[in-house]
Amino acid sequence: KGSQGAIDSALVENNTFTFTGTADTAKACVIAFQKEGARPKTVEFILENAALTATLNDTERSVVGSPANDNLVAFFQQLKELNESGKTIAEELKSEDKAIAEAAKEKEEAFEKQLNDLYKNFINQNLNSLSGAIVLVQRYHSLSDNDLIQITDNMGEIFKTHPTVERIKQIADVRKTVLVGNKFVDFEMADTEGKMHKLSEYVGNGNVVLIDFWASWC
Q1: Which residues in 177-190 are b (16+ Cβ under 10 Å) and which e?
Q2: Quick one: which of 58, 49, 43 has its CA closest to 21?
């Protein structure tokens, strides 16, 4: 299925299925396979005019057969290998040996940086490919403001065709307005007596202003 819902379906016989047809343009899609009573197996891929081979089983979910899809599969293999090392760190963090647990904290920081760099580098190397867009959609919430803004400012037209990228671009544009060092965005709210006040009333003349957005359950 694509952004507009189901595109096609196929009957699975002898553990195989086939889709045929042509695509006017490449698009990000998902193949989903589900046995009755079981969780669906899904894989996101790039639907394009090529002889693609999909594998969906308990150990592998991939679509290969075109440069963009092969590139995507290679990335997820790297990600899988890196995440395996992350599992070891997670176990060490739970250790009752304080020395092991403390050392694991440093490993965890290095692991998170390595993980973020893997995502960021792949996206930046594929700024005009749907493979880069698919990876961005998975990771945009963990990217720094500057990284997300840099990516969305430089993405190509093909990249933008992913249905979620437009929303991510809107998020990045909002983040631009609140980057550290930028002038604050003025706003107006009522005080406890219903009188309206602007933030700009309190800023300036050497004042340091702390804004606390709170909720009644805090």
Answers
A1: eeeeeeeeeeeeee
A2: 49
Tokens read off for 144: 């720094």
Q: Which tens digits make up the pLDDT trace of 16-26? A: 999 998 888 99
Q: Measured between alpha carbons, how far is 151 from 123 in angstroms, rounded to an integer?
A: 8
Asked which of 28-32, 78-82, 114-118, 204-208 is least confident by mean pLDDT, the reply is 204-208
Which of 117, 125, 176, 110 lies closest to 143, judged by CA? Answer: 117
Here the tokens at position 51 are: 């002889």
> In angstroms, rounded to a whole number, what is the distance separating the alpha carbons of residues 12 and 45?
19
- Per-residue pLDDT band at 165 (split at 50, 70, 90): very high
- The answer to whether residues 165 and 189 touch, using CB atoms and an 8 Å cutoff, is no
Contact partners, residue 78, CB within 8 Å, separation at least 6: 118
From residue 98, give the alpha-carbon distance in Å to each of 80, 93, 101, 132. Answer: 28, 9, 5, 40
Q: If you average pLDDT over residues 78-88, what whole number do you get?
A: 92
Secondary structure (3-state) at 161 = coil
Average pLDDT rounded to a whole number, residues 96-114? 91
Per-residue pLDDT band at 38 (split at 50, 70, 90)? confident
